[in-house]
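Now for one record.
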Amino acid sequence: MIESSSEEIQSTGSTTTIQQLNEEIQRESAFVDLIRMEMKKVIVGQEYMTERLLIALLSDGHILLEGVPGLAKTLAINTLSKTVHAAFSRIQFTPDLLPADLVGTMIYNQKTAEFQVKQGPIFANFVLADEINRAPAKVQSALLEAMQERQITLGDKTFQLPKPFLVLATQNPVEQEGTYPLPEAQVDRFMLKVILDYPKKEDEKLIIRQNVSAQSFPKPNAVLQPEQIVNARELVRKVYMDEKIEQYIVDLVFATRNPRDYRLDKFSQLISFGGSPRASISLALAAKAYAFIQRRGYVIPEDVRAIAHDVLRHRIGLTYEAEAENITTENIIDEIINVVEVP
């Protein structure tokens, strides 16, 4: 545990105590509660999903939501976008979609005898890629440059995407007909992959009541400006992370690559590939964002453990032996968290 009274950190060139950083974060993170309140008006239960959406928003990462139909995946993303005064676009992925339908295209203007750029729906702050696995790989790959470099190249021109820029994708794991698995390069661009479960009984009763009521369906209010998100992201990066926590993150990721080095020999024939350096970066940033949401100016091991499944589950490849033995990435991550020494 880090002693907040004695530690000092280096932040943007000036020395600041963790206590001062804590106070600053408690002031600046007040909007988190506002967003949660607005989302609760529409989304019943699913606090886990709401928290992960906030983590992605604060850590400048993209998020993939996976769950059976009817779990409010699309509604949650739509609601989050409405709490911010920002541009939102929804792209319904279908098998006949083309890359130009996402990013835009060059159109010939006969009057000027020149090609003009027509920007696609991806030029927005929040982009909902609904049922992303229903489009073929060439369409999914059109998102790669946007998600990584925050820019789009059309013809010989490159256009910067607005800030903040966030891709929120959904996919249905049940239906396989007419779907295309996401390429590994595409999946790795998502900071978090969140698996959603059914709501609890009490929550489902509220959902029924809310949807069959004679009153109009509640709508969220916009409580945040895009500039506040950009400023909050800068503050999230200032959250103090001790070198021992950094080592812990590296050990967790390396255990997915070289399980033998961590007394996990049984996984050596079950893992085809482990997390890349992007996994380590995502785990560190997500842990900082989680600490920010908890109103803390420093990261503790519990922050890393809380977010580890969402960061790593889509970055571990399984062999045929693992599938034959019904071993899932969840099982592997659980074992890694239990074995790797906590600082």
Summary: The mean pLDDT is 86. The chain has two domains: 44-213+224-237, 239-343. The domain at 239-343 is CATH 1.10.8.80 (Helicase, Ruva Protein; domain 3). The chain has 15 helices and 13 strands.
